[in-house]
Amino acid sequence: MAMKVRRRDFLKLVGTVGVAGAALGLAPPIVRYVLPPVLKGEMPRSQLVWEDCSPVKASELKPNVNYVFYYPLIDTVNVLIKLETPDGKPVKIPKIRVPGDMNPLTQPPAWLDGVITQDELEAALRTATSGITYEYPAGVGPDGNIIAYSAICQHLGCPFPALRYYPPGQPAQTNPPEVGGNGGVFHCACHGSAYDPARGAVVLTPPTVKPQPAIVLEYDSATDELYAVNVVGPTIAGKACNTCGKTVGPRIVIGENAEPAKKQC
């Protein structure tokens, strides 16, 4: 025997189906808004050049100077440094395992005496607040003392020159003061975060809890030339991903203690 459906129930059913259909139609854009797609792009391999477009030679770099360049995006600023001790000795930068999240070490930088011990290399791992770690590559160049980091602070995104490298003998106003009192740190003037350049930019003072992203450099010993080839560590501050935006070209200009000229080489 056929089942009779009352007119009122039929209209309710039609209305329910209509609302459900409309909701399903809206679902994709809602999901895209709440969970935006992960955009990925190829990381550029970019040669470092001077403002006259001539290649940067590792032997030409001055020690303990902020060399400023953009990579991997045209608006993500970085600092390259050739580390030397106060008495002029190159500081060979080893590979180091760095925690993605950590408590600040609240200690002076490890490298000013020219020696980085195994205990100093492992100290940051003991303050890790998650199981996420990554490997920061060794320094490059003839003496293994050339490194580069993002110059956009991991705390609230303050860029160079607020975040910059303070060379040995140039105090940074850190809390506690002894951490940056002899220089040798990355320090952000906005809110006081400090990082150790010789140990994968691990956190030395709060409020940040994330190390600075590191720019992976490649050194051509035959030509003495340098290339930026990758980024490791936390995502660059303020970016959904490290290649979400317009990437730089095959050559990137660097400036000495200042942002470089906006030009293509």
Written account of the structure:
The protein is of the alpha+beta class and 265 residues long. The chain has 3 helices and 14 strands. A 4-stranded mixed beta sheet has the order 11-12-1-13, with no helix packed on it. The protein is globular, with a radius of gyration of 25 Å.
In short, what is this structure?
The protein is α+β, with helices and mostly antiparallel strands. Helices cover 14% and strands 23% of the residues. The termini are far apart.
| Spatial strand sequence of the major β-sheet | 11-12-1-13
Strand content: 15-25%
CATH homologous superfamily assignment of the largest domain: Rieske [2Fe-2S] iron-sulphur domain
- How far is it from the N-terminal to the C-terminal residue, by CA? 84 Å
Which H/E pattern describes the elements? Answer: HEEEEHEEEHEEEEEEE
Task: Please indicate the count of domains.
Answer: 2
Globally, the shape reads: globular
Q: Identify the CATH architecture of the largest domain.
A: 3-layer Sandwich
Key phrases:
23% strand; four-stranded antiparallel beta sheet; alpha+beta; four-stranded mixed beta sheet; 2 domains
Helix-strand layout with pairing:
Blueprint: H1 7-34, E1 46-49, E2 67-70, E3 77-82, E4 96-99, H2 118-123, E5 133-136, E6 146-150, E7 163-166, H3 177-180, E8 185-188, E9 194-196, E10 202-205, E11 214-220, E12 225-232, E13 251-253, E14 255-256
Parallel strand pairs: 1-13
Antiparallel strand pairs: 1-12, 2-3, 2-14, 3-6, 4-5, 7-8, 8-9, 9-10, 11-12
